[in-house]
Amino acid sequence: MKRILFISSLILLAAVRVSGTGTITSEQARLVGDGVTLNTDAFQKAIDRLSDKGGGTLVLLPGRYLTGTVELKSGVELRLERGAELLGSTNPADYADKDFPGGTHRKPLIDLELALITANGARNVKLSGDGVINGQGRALALHIDSLHYKGIAVSPDYDDISHRPNHRPVLLSLRYCSNVEISGLRFTASSIFALEFYKCEDVNLHHLDVLNRAYWNNDGIDIIDCKRMEVAFCHVNSADDGICLNTWDPDDTTDGIYIHDCTVESSASALKCGTPSYGCFQNLHFARIKVKNTFRSAIALEAVDGGSLKNILAEDIEAFNVGNPIFIRLGRRNGNRTASVDGITIRRMYCETAFERPDGGYDIRGPITNTMINPIPSSITGIPGHKVRNVNIEDVILVYPGGASKGLRYIPTWDIARVPEFENHYPDYDMFGELPAYGFFVRHAEGIRFRNVNLKLKEDDFRPAFVLSDTENVSFDSISYPLGKTEGQIYMDK
Questions:
Q1: pTM, entire model
Q2: So what's the pLDDT on residue 486?
């Protein structure tokens, strides 16, 4: 087992200080806080004036400031006082659409330059205060949708299956930025993702409230090919993935990310690496995370596009009312390259899995791909000829609902081959459909260690606790589980 690095000791992010001394208030910048007047030009002029003088702070006094795209510049702080609300325009024409900078293997699915607040290559940037950044995302998205159907502004990537436009502004998009601090603010109601960071370095997010449930694809915080980033004391409630790490560049890494002391609710997965996984995820540390009311996985670690996932530590995780505790997947969605997963430790985790959908309070809920299946266990799966390697599951209590019925679905242990491989499929905890275990399904894996793992059932389950197929060097130390009604609780298929 490769040594897990303690990312917290590697990330020493000092508070960002703007280089200038000037301060401009919203009043001095002639911003109108009536929630109706469009302030885009006045916003940009104030930011440019501060940047030209070497930096400074733009302070939004209490009021509701409507704007389109605003670009932050080096050395500038945007501070929202309590009672200040920055409102995103619901007119898509108010959002700038610039060319994406080059140097990547492929352009990310979402247009990162289309945003309410954006920055490109800026240094020493800060957003702070006690105010609110509100994208008014549902009204904006529905406006984009209407313009598409009327033929006035046809969306270049309209999804005809789900009937929604993908070309929508995020709330905050920072690209190629460094030395960034964002604190204290509430981000809400994006038309798509809330906060997105692409190829940024030395970023500190703390004490944020991210409520993003206005429309489809409403991720909370997305981190793409970034280095040395800390996310701390944040609350994320999102209609899609909560805190999601991606890597789009096969020659780059998402490296040195420390996420701790956060609470996450999601109608998808709470903590996720992937799905885009073309490069490398490494040196990631998740600590003291509370997850609740999450439809999919509490922790989803995925490498399916030819990249690698290594040196990952998740510890002190509490999860209640979730669809699935742990999902670890090595796949081959990109046919020319095979991914690798090597070196994961998950320890001190308590998780209670729901029998019914755990995201009942969301009006936009995650889609169900396999409805007629029994409760889904944790899984660690590779593909034939390519194994997940060196995973430690330690000091873990997983409470499953049980209540599985052979009348609904039944795959006996002698028929494990019926579980599909789906090498090229989108990875998700329910991707295989019915699984023959209630606790852990492990396939195409090597060097898996279960130590002090306690499985519990609320109702009887006819399936074994553990089912292993095509595995090597799997060890069990201090394992406990209900005896149940099944023939054996650990089934190994060589």
A1: 0.94
A2: 55
